[in-house]
Write a structure and sequence with these properties.
single chain, 573 residues, mainly alpha, Growth Hormone, Chain: A, four-stranded antiparallel β-sheet, two-stranded antiparallel ribbon, globular, disordered C terminus, membrane, transmembrane transporter activity, transmembrane helix, transmembrane
Length: 573
């Protein structure tokens, strides 16, 4: 980056941009949460879908919404940049919301209400085409928003100094998740109430209006943002390293790491805050940095399909080291993918009376996840971290590996609670004809909120700090891609369980009182126990990345203890 570019970055960014970025995200999250929270009710009550079919539609939709970010991230990192990727994504998302709102308002665009003592009319192919097109547009829009917002916000803070400090990084992520949680709480109460009691036109229309406001708020901040120049396609660079290593698979690897190819000028746009330093893991790919005859052009530049710098080799290694931890997140999402479907259907057949004239909306039960997440985020930031610092001497209190591990255990306990409550609910209904209170679902949703505080925030910290600098949007997209695959696997698991059990006692029938949903919960609990064991092995052998600062100062993320954050060598004594 040129001196003029660095001077411009000093005048832009910083905390003054946070109200604009977080304000946009608050509006966006309010809109998307209000839009999605009660879709299971819309599909079953308005579109007249069977429960398993509606559940699979939503998990597939959630999976697609989390798959498109990998494409959006590649576009952002390759040529569009994060600002324009977010802006275009917001607009496409808004178009999808407008489409679904119109279909909810126009009687001809959805099935008619069910008449008494008559079979409900199913949605026609035309109704489903509009529904799926609307959902697909919102999923495509998510692809531009999700992988870019967190790195874009972190960029505004990081480039004000040499790098994001260990204290500032986690605080930003905690603030981000806290803001999103508070907004989700508002959407889960206000919007869901409107959908259940006023109508789906206003229930979808209000989030749509708020989404339009979020676009305006974000675009207004254009002059104040740091907008990092895209460094070219990360997939191309990773592929070049792999091809060069395979071509030189028989080359003799030197013992002296200083003999590997380095080019500071070539890597300048990829390593503004510091180049990656050579590591001893995945040594096969070091062959891409061995200089051999025919590797250089007449201009003195390397042929990138034959020769890569150490930094580019280490980019590939960094991504590959993250993959085992990423796989663990897929299994977790698969185990939790039912929270927005089956649990809400449970709530609809439980006692939801608050007063003689008011019933608690079943979809609003998710507010207890948000409340517990907000509470635990505050306690974590203000109580747990300062207390842990006294014992660990780390600025962050505990490492993000420890934070993710705690989250995995809590998520497993959430499913244990879900299984026990479903057993109690079914016994009370089938044996005594009594509907227990919907608030028996509160423990599983609350524990889930605690798990989010530890796992989701910890995983986002892990992805941001361990990803190569020029690939942060793409690496953040891995976070969403993991969620996508987790939802698709959740769909597969539900389908397999339903098909394998429907000839006997169907675990997942439309009438939950005749099913064995508690057995399904115990199955995913067992899967989570295996996943925790897998995670412990992966985290034990993970090696942190090491940086060399851009100004010549050495900054290393060293492994004094597993998972320790950055340590500035010049400050150690």
């Amino acid at each position: 980056m040129s001196e003029d570019g660095r001077e411009e970055n000093r005048k832009q960014g910083g905390f003054k941009t946070m109200p604009l970025i977080l304000g946009n995200e608050i509006c966006d999250r309010f809109a998307s949460t209000g839009f999605n929270a009660n879709l299971i009710t819309y599909l079953t009550q308005i579109m007249h879908m069977p429960m398993v079919e509606a559940s699979n539609v939503l998990t597939n939709f959630s999976g697609t919404s989390s798959l498109t970010p990998i494409i959006g991230a590649l576009i952002a990192d390759s040529f569009a940049g994060r600002f324009w990727s977010i802006t275009v994504g917001l607009i496409i998302y808004l178009i999808g919301m407008i489409s679904l709102t119109i279909s909810a308002v126009a009687p001809s665009l959805h099935p008619p209400p069910c008449a008494e003592q008559q079979q409900c009319q199913k949605a026609t192919s035309g109704h489903l085409f509009i529904l799926y097109t609307s959902l697909l547009l919102t999923a495509i829009g998510s692809g531009g928003i999700r992988p870019c917002v967190v790195p874009f916000g972190a960029d505004q803070l990081e480039l004000k100094g040499a790098h994001m400090t260990a204290e500032k990084g986690p605080s930003f992520f905690n603030l981000y998740f806290f803001s999103m949680g508070f907004t989700s709480l508002l959407a889960l109460t206000l919007v869901v109430y409107i959908q259940d009691n006023v109508g789906w036109g206003w229930g979808f229309g209000i989030p749509t209006i708020v989404m339009a406001l979020s676009i305006i708020l974000f675009v207004v901040g254009y002059p104040f943002y740091i907008r990092i120049k895209p460094a070219g396609s990360p997939m191309t660079r990773l592929t070049q390293v792999m091809v060069a290593a395979i071509r030189k698979r028989n080359a003799v690897r030197p013992d002296d790491v200083n003999l590997f190819y380095q080019d500071k000028e070539l890597d300048a746009d990829l390593s503004i805050t510091g180049r990656l330093v050579h590591t001893d893991q995945l040594k096969f790919f070091d062959r891409a940095a061995i200089v051999t005859d025919g590797d250089m052009l007449l201009s003195g530049r390397p042929k990138l399909w034959r020769l890569s710098t150490v930094h580019r080799v280490e980019e590939l290694k960094a991504i590959m080291r993250m993959l085992p931890i990423w796989i663990m997140g897929i299994i977790l999402i698969m185990a939790l993918s039912h929270n927005g479907t089956f649990a809400i259907q449970q709530g609809r057949i439980m006692d939801r009376r608050i007063t003689s004239h008011f019933q608690f909306p079943a979809a609003s039960i998710s507010i207890f996840t948000v409340i517990s997440m907000l509470t635990s985020l505050t306690i974590y930031d203000r109580v747990l971290v300062p207390l842990a610092r006294r014992y660990t001497k780390r600025p962050t209190g505990i490492t993000y590996f420890q934070r993710m591990g705690i989250g995995l255990v809590l998520a497993m306990l959430s499913n244990v609670s879900a299984a026990l409550v479903e057993t109690k609910r079914k016994n009370a209904m089938n044996l005594h004809g009594v509907s227990i209170s919907v608030f028996w679902l509160v423990p599983q949703f609350s524990i889930h909120g605690f798990a989010e505080t530890f796992f989701s925030v910890g995983q986002m910290e892990f992805v941001y700090h361990q990803a190569p600098e020029s690939m942060r949007s793409s690496a953040t997209a891995l976070f969403w891609l993991g969620i996508s695959l987790g939802y698709y696997m959740g769909t597969a698991l539900v389908t397999i369980v339903h098909n394998c059990t429907k000839k006997g006692v169907d675990w997942l029938p439309d009438d939950l009182n005749k099913g064995k949903l508690d057995s399904y919960y115990w199955l995913v609990t067992a899967i989570q126990i295996v996943n925790i064991g897998y995670y412990l092995v992966c985290s034990k052998y993970y090696k942190m990345k090491t940086l060399e600062a851009a100004e010549g100062e050495k900054v290393a993320e060293m492994e004094k203890e597993r998972g320790e954050e950055k340590v500035e060598l010049g400050d150690t004594k």
